[in-house]
Amino acid sequence: MGSTFGKIFQISTFGESHGKGIGVVIDGCPPMLEISPEEIQRELARRRPGQSELSTPRNEADCVEILSGVYRGKTTGTPIALFVANVDQRPAAYAKMRELFRPSHADFAYAQKYGIRDPDGGGRASARETIARVAAGAIAKKILAQVCGCEFSCYVESVEKIAMPASDEFFPQKKVDSAPIRCPDPATAEKMSARVREAKAAGDSVGGTIRCKIRGVPAGLGEPVFDRLEADLAKAMLSIPATKGFEIGSGFSGTKMTGSQHNDAFVLRDGAVRTKTNNSGGVQGGISNGEEINFRVAFKPTPTIAQKQQTVDTAGNASEIVGTGRHDPCVLPRAVPIVEAMAALVLVDHLLRQQATNILKPPQTPAAKSR
């Protein structure tokens, strides 16, 4: 069940990096949602390889095909199957590495777990699997926009030690995507891009952080105690390849504050209950409070590098390895739409769970509404 995510809006992904292709089956999508291949394709285009010199040169158009669940442009309520064929697959590039365990890759762990592994591009462990998530996320984002008016602002906040100035601004997707590095601050974006190019030239890689903000999330989403909204968001983010950290709201910086400094005081604003600050990141007690969801995800440097490293082969002999194949010197720019997609999948699942749970719930009083 490790390839299935969600409880009501449920996705199951399949495929390998250099196999026939990547796909996803979505179960639980409500009927009558208007969706087209073009809408899904727009999101996939933001994730696809070969966008700039800052990403892998692998040439994939990542054209999506809707196999089922959509009739005359509308979802039918039955399982939706989406498929993207692998066109520019080059398994031969990994021939010399098939008997070697690549440092910080899943090779050794997969071999220990299954006794067999697909060594071509990492197989199932490859970040190419995230095509399926972004395709499903495109549908989830449309549901959220249509039902709640949800908007996403997701961008690269730091690359290695280079960070953009702290900002409360909700940057639109157009501004974020205007720079190849996907940082909305032009001066910082230029420095970040230069650092990625420098690492690439040295046969190395760099990591960093992605900030995600979501507006329009209604109060009440989240299922205590084990399916807290921030817990599900954390799982979703940490399921993305190369992720190493997650924090929401004040995160680790909140440990340096007192309770009187950190508490989000409640106020009445235009007849609605709101919070004066948002150190909670839009979630309290595991349930959304109607404020902006605000979290950050940490990504490690790409593990495949063109430098000699120590390793061990499948026979247990000490060896050396130099990474080959086509890889991103920094995963961050292409990870932005993946973070958005996973957040959308969590939110739409909890939205449907909330509606199912509260079918008999009486209407709220105006003072209790958060938005």
* Biggest sheet architecture: 5 strands, antiparallel
Secondary-structure class:
alpha+beta
Q: Low-confidence stretches at least 5 residues in length (pLDDT < 50)?
A: none
What is the 3D form?
A: globular
Order of helices and strands: EEEHEEEEHHEEHHEHEHEEEEEEEH
Tell me the fraction of residues in β-strands, as a range. Answer: 15-25%
**Helix percent band:** 25-40%
Helix tally equals 8
Describe what is shown at a glance.
With 371 residues, the chain is of the alpha+beta class.
Question: Would you kindly provide a written description of the structure presented here, covering whatever features stand out?
Answer:
27% of the residues lie in helices and 23% in strands. It is of the alpha+beta class and 371 residues long. The strands form six sheets. The chain has a five-stranded antiparallel sheet, covered by helices on one side. Strands 9-8-10-16-11 form a five-stranded antiparallel sheet. A two-stranded antiparallel ribbon has the order 5-6. A hairpin with a 5-residue loop joins strand 2 (10-15) and strand 3 (21-27).
Task: Furnish the topology, listing elements before pairings.
Layout: E1 4-5, E2 10-15, E3 21-27, H1 37-47, E4 64-68, E5 70-71, E6 74-75, E7 80-85, H2 107-114, H3 130-148, E8 151-159, E9 162-163, H4 173-177, H5 186-201, E10 208-215, H6 229-238, E11 243-248, H7 259-262, E12 266-269, E13 272-275, E14 283-284, E15 287-288, E16 293-299, E17 308-312, E18 318-322, H8 332-357
Antiparallel strand pairs: 1-2, 2-3, 3-7, 4-7, 5-6, 8-9, 8-10, 10-16, 11-16, 12-13, 14-15, 17-18
Helix pairs in contact: 1-3, 1-8, 3-8, 6-8
